[in-house]
Amino acid sequence: MKRLTLYLREVERRLSQGESRVSSRQLGQGLGVTDTQIRKDLSWFGQFGQAGVGYAIEDLATRLRQILGKDRTWKTALVGAGRLGQAIMSYGPFAREGFEIAAVFDADPSLIGTEVGGRRIRRLDELDQIVREREIMLGIISVPKEAAQSTAERLIEAGVLGILNFAPVRLEVADRASVVSVDFSARLEQLAFQVSLGLKGSIDGDD
Amino acid sequence: MKRLTLYLREVERRLSQGESRVSSRQLGQGLGVTDTQIRKDLSWFGQFGQAGVGYAIEDLATRLRQILGKDRTWKTALVGAGRLGQAIMSYGPFAREGFEIAAVFDADPSLIGTEVGGRRIRRLDELDQIVREREIMLGIISVPKEAAQSTAERLIEAGVLGILNFAPVRLEVADRASVVSVDFSARLEQLAFQVSLGLKGSIDGDD
DNA sequence: CTTTGTGAAATTATTCACAGCA
DNA sequence: TGCTGTGAATAATTTCACAAAG
Q1: Mean pLDDT over residues A90-119, rounded?
Q2: Does at least one atom of strand D sit less than 7 Å from the CB of B24?
């Protein structure tokens, strides 16, 4: 459920501000979600709150972290160290939220061996070995779209269970892994579409 | 409708391969969408196809471009020329798909005046004037999350109608503009969630 | 009086089934 | 036969309404 990640973010923000309780209505306020929606979503995972009082923020955060698999560190391999790859490497939130970029690969010989943000860029043909050795479970694909499918296969072959795909193509992985895509162009197009329709307001918190 | 952008992409791919007709089933094949879904989606905008034959790819492309507002060039202001901003500037698909980055702004004095990818980086306080002068209609926000809301307001103030937001916060714009967000962390978290649930398969083509 | 958790109702999205056309 | 367009059926999601609890 894509809203859960938003809830956790907001709950952690409030936690860091020293708040200790929150109601579903308060939680939804800054998130553009109704209180009922939040309660329904949470109820899927059991009972968290206390009627008349609300939710204990710390408990809720802990529980959400468990549900979302954020109670551990996810080792991640980044494939593609071009500008986008570099932006991803230096993207603060990843590191802070339990995602460790444990290795970086690229096909371009001129990049191999260089360091970006303190990380050495490795040859693509080391991928299999290193992913296995370090027990890397997730892959991030920031290669040109032509190379995306083969990169995905390589990652899956090496044992990766999930892929975050930045290439504007649909990856064919059958049921060998989970794939989540981030598609800049598609989003910009959606924006243009909405503007030409004259729609206003915020769409999607993720998404 | 977020699938429309996928349809256009696939239609253009086929067009560039010299195909002239396509059925809804063929179109959906590589997209993970059912044929019925495609027909339903398209039917919202009128009748395109020919029973028994399918869709004339060129007509369909033209029509989709109109619907999605891709029959013109969208001038865009990029705010935030850090690594992510630079990745966006050099992201091929944008330029190719009718989005022109007409100006780039940043708050960091050490970046002002430098050129990245042939584009001069400007002071933030020139934003208003330049957006008006050049009739820029869209804004891309790739600034740190603390600065995102104020950047959004500045862009809207200057007359921008739509914002593509890369900061992991919800922008409060009331009904003064359309906002579409791209949230890396949220997506990566979703991926981790799915992997910990053991779900497999591709999620979202855009999204 | 406030707020949760949850069935029931309403709404929205997707799929089915098929008439009609080439 | 192969295919579109669409009303009807089904499924999924969201909202409503309210009993129970602090």
Answers
A1: 93
A2: yes
Read off the pLDDT of residues B65-100 as tens digits, 9 standing for 90 and up: 999 999 999 999 999 999 999 999 998 888 888 999
Angle formed at CA B33 by CA B29 and CA B35, multiple of 5 degrees: 75
Nearest-CA residue of chain B relative to A169? B205
What Å value separates CA A121 and C1' D13? 45
pLDDT the model gives residue A92: 84
Q: Are strands B119-123 and B115-116 parallel, antiparallel or unpaired?
A: antiparallel
Cβ contact A106:A86 at 8 Å: no
Q: Kindly tell me if the per-residue pLDDT of B204 is higher than 70.
A: no
Q: Which nucleotides of C are covered by protein (CB under 7 A)?
A: 1-7, 14-17, 19-22
A51: the nucleotide nearest its CA (via C1') is C4
The spacing between the Cα labelled CA in B81 and the C1' in C4, in angstroms, equals 46
All domains of chain B in start order, with CATH:
2-67 (1.10.10.10), 74-186 (3.40.50.720)
Q: A174 or A128: which carries more pLDDT confidence?
A: A128
- Model-level pTM greater than 0.90? yes
